[in-house]
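Take a sample.
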Amino acid sequence: MLSCLPSVTACPSLDSPDFDCLVLVSPDVAKVGVAAVTTAVTSLAEVDAKALTTVSVCPVALPCKRLVFSPTGPLDRDYDDIRRFSDAAGAGMKRALAAGAKKPLLKVDGCLPGGKGEEAALAGLLGALAALYVPLEIRDLGEARGAKVTGLGWVGPQATIDEAVAIETGRIVCRDIGGSDPERTAAPRVEEYVREYFRDSRVTVEVVQGQETFEKEYPCLAAVNRCASHVERHGGRVIWLTYEPEDGKYERTLYMVVKGITYDTGGADIKAGGIMAGMSRDKCGAAAAAGVMATVTRLKPRGVKVVAAMAMVRNSVGSDAYVADEIITSRAGVRLRVGNTDAEGRMAMVDVLCHAKEKALKDPNPQLMTIATLTGHAVLAVGPYSSIMDNGPAKVSGTARQVQEAGDSVGDMFEINTIRREDWDFIKDKSGEFVTVLQCNNAASSRTPRGHQFPAAFMMTVSGLDKHMVASEQPLKYSHLDIAGSAGNLPDPTTASAVPAIVKWLSG
């Protein structure tokens, strides 16, 4: 497993002979203050009217000899945000690669009105690093395919490099697990990946496996895994990753319970009509949590314990697949009726969430989260953004607002939604007194009103978190993150959404 993260070095001067291309990100080249750059771009603009509004390449009187100018575009409109810098840097880096650059130098100028230059710089460097990612399958082919550049220069402080590299480290792990195909990142191979990655780190790895064990510990997950359990290479895993500070002291705890559906056929309610393609991406919630843990190992935050519980299961179809109408009793003792086998993500997570809840009750100031590419409805509701919704205790604490603000600062945007009484009513089983909860209706979430909110009510009820609301003796903060729209679907690359926002929120 070769790394594709280039060596990033601080460079105090554009006169360095160590680089073969300058990638300049700026809202206005006239304000850069480097005569050679201004002259080069101005000369280009005299023969190309678009040179100041699109990514351009031209010679420059600097040792690197080549300039890629990537303008941010306007920054002062109500809807402009920090992504102006990350998008421009990513586009500029791709153009530099196309021009033949092997060791580019990146300079990011400017900031949003009233904003911080440090935030713009970080967003720009992250955008450039994203453009240099090499997919895991390509890196598996050998060292020669392991990197797009031999190094990257940065005109800016070392602190920006340190933070960007830490975040990009997590995003690489996230892209590796979330973006790779359903065989390369089947559950057993994800176990291999994380064991290797976190070896000799502050993160401990514990793995639960085996259908009999799942039936005892996580009966809802066991139902999803039942069909795949007959194929060894597809057998499920629950992977617990735990980080504790070196001094063993912490005042707050984060539990991330995450959906890792390595492939989603829909199960017995099979995805028909050509909509199954891309379902190897249904593990991006688990990938995001692994990415957060990878960044945490670099940043080593003090005073916080971080736990990720990756529910890695394949929703296969066959003679032993679970089916609608089955009645299952959850780990928390809640009886539910299966309404749709394509609503497998909440089934995979809910008993693991119950287990995390049991652990959280013993930890200081816990915050629980579920993170999942859960519903098509979230894609319709919030488009290419992540959705976050709080229960009562988390809302009082301001979790969703804080995560949204953290994401805004680094270009990882969230929309805040609310879990309402209609969502709780929706999951009540109407068939009789012997079943409490309906797992799902039998229509697509995209055709169901509040289709991405009611699953949060399901998970709270079935995990027993409904016993830990604001008025309870032991309130527990819980937030549900649906990243179906933001994670990236084929043929687009995975985005590693949620990693930067959660990391920034943790460190805030």
In short: The chain has a mean pLDDT of 96. The radius of gyration is 24 Å. The first strand starts at residue 8 and ends at 10.
